[in-house]
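Support case: user asked for a sample of complex input and structure output to validate their parser. Sending the pair below.
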Amino acid sequence: MTEPLDHPAARALAERHRLRPWEAIPWLLALGFYFAFPKHLGFGTELLVTVLFALSLDLVLGYAGIVTLGQAAFFGAGAYTVGILAKQGIWTEPITGLILAALVAAAVGLGSGLVLLRTQGLTLLMLTLCTMALLEEAANLAHDYTGGFDGLDSLPIAPLLGRFEFNPLYPTTQYLYVLVVLFVCFVFVRTLVYSPFGQSLRGIRENMLRMHAVGAPVRGRLVLCYTLSAAIAGIAGGIWAQANAYVNLGTLGLDRAATVLIILVLGGHGRLYGAFIGAVAYMVLSHFLAKIYPTAWQLGLGLLLVVIALFARNGILGIVAALGRRPAPRATS
Amino acid sequence: MIAGVDIASMLLGGVAAGMVLFIVSVGLSVTMGLMGFVNLAHGGFAMLGGYAIALAMKHWGFGFVSALVFGFVVTAAASAVLERLLYARLYGADELDQVLFTIGLVFMIIASVTLLIGPENQPLALPSFLRGQINLGIIQYRAYSVVLIAIGIVIVGALWLGFERTRLGAQIRAAVDNRRMAESLGINIARLFTITFAFGSGMAALGGGLGAEFLGLDPQYALKYLVYFLIVVAVGGLGRVTGVFYAALLIGVLDFALKKYVPQGGTAFIYALTILLLLWRPQGLFGAKAT
């Protein structure tokens, strides 16, 4: 028998994964939003999809430390899976459609991850960027299936569970559907990052060499993480396509990939709830500012990024955590 | 059948485009190789230089050549200030922080240019002696493309001499290969970084001005061509002047030929080729093996 759990550090480690009372707040707020703002459910749906997408990036960037600029490749793969299947009249049932979207995105993630994750640093960054650009170009070329630049619109999506119609004007079904899917995915990701697998991802992020040295299957873990993250991003893309009954090339673009990166970092990466905080902060700001002053919004966003990179490396949640702690001696890097 | 004249004109056009790619990307390659800094704002510096050159010619009565010099100096000076004040804080930081910082910088550059000058394309009028055709014996070709090639050859020659034959060049090469060792030998790395960064940005400005004739010049320039510059650097190898030169020519000719003969899907081919190439040689075609 080794040390029992009476040491404070051991207890802290053992209780890290326990649910805390405040973790109910985001979900209560999301439900409250449904009743409080019935006119803004379209915005709310978009917000929840963004949270889901940012969550997928958090898994690969925040926990495994893989810096990628190509996460939208998987979002787009999922969205086009739903879009093409619906447009061709092959498959319109939403829930199984999402599973298919996740499978296709996971396949893309596995295929690209197997080769990309052999590299590191700038090469890896370039390869993620090129893979996404390649997919975007391919979607543009396969005009007959993807609608090319114009995309696919008015997708026929069957009613949820055979009963609840997706109404584009009153997206009540969409909102609750996305909320449930987000919850399921969140529980999965939360369980994953506190599992031994999640711990080993953190180990790889902190010191890859040492993880190699202790015999951890580093590459296999990274590929698995990349694939799971791709599947979740595919679900986000698929559900986006279902909720909007629409797919276009923008789902695969650098804009979307950069935006989700900004959102995650704004909220705080490697912290699960950073995706929520970042998405809310970004979407609300952009909802009110971007439409009125698009250029000033871009200027402010750029300034915000520069400030985050220079002074607030852990985002909003990092600032909150730092305020809650006693002031530590300044770390030098 | 493709006639010999077609091949010649394709090569000329592609090489001219490649020269511009080289002039813009060489600074990116050296700063990435030297400082290990992922500078996504490099396209922004090229764009700022292009704007400085276009505005100097349009409003302040500069000639083409003096405007190019002006654009070089202004951009180099501005980037030196940015390097000392901001970039220097992120040397050795996470790649993620560098990526965020430089994306933020690009956004700010794009927004500032849109606010101050406007979102429309800035025409850059070439002087009369660069317009029209030139007789090259076998074919008539656009004079400007031929001049671009000549400028590119002069620049790559000068850079090669500067890199291989001067004290500063030797210091840069030493720092790219082994920064710690170079530092221990008493090379002032901080000064070297600033000089190289400013010079690289100045070159980008030159490329922005020289290439404006066929790449255009609008606020989206900073992001639109970034992937191309990055591909050239990644294929050429970090911190390798000659590597970047060959890579730029390769990409320039390929892109030109593909756009002409396979207008659909040409770009996809370049992305696919880059992926394969980087898988085969992660350090680039001409880069040294990572140590």
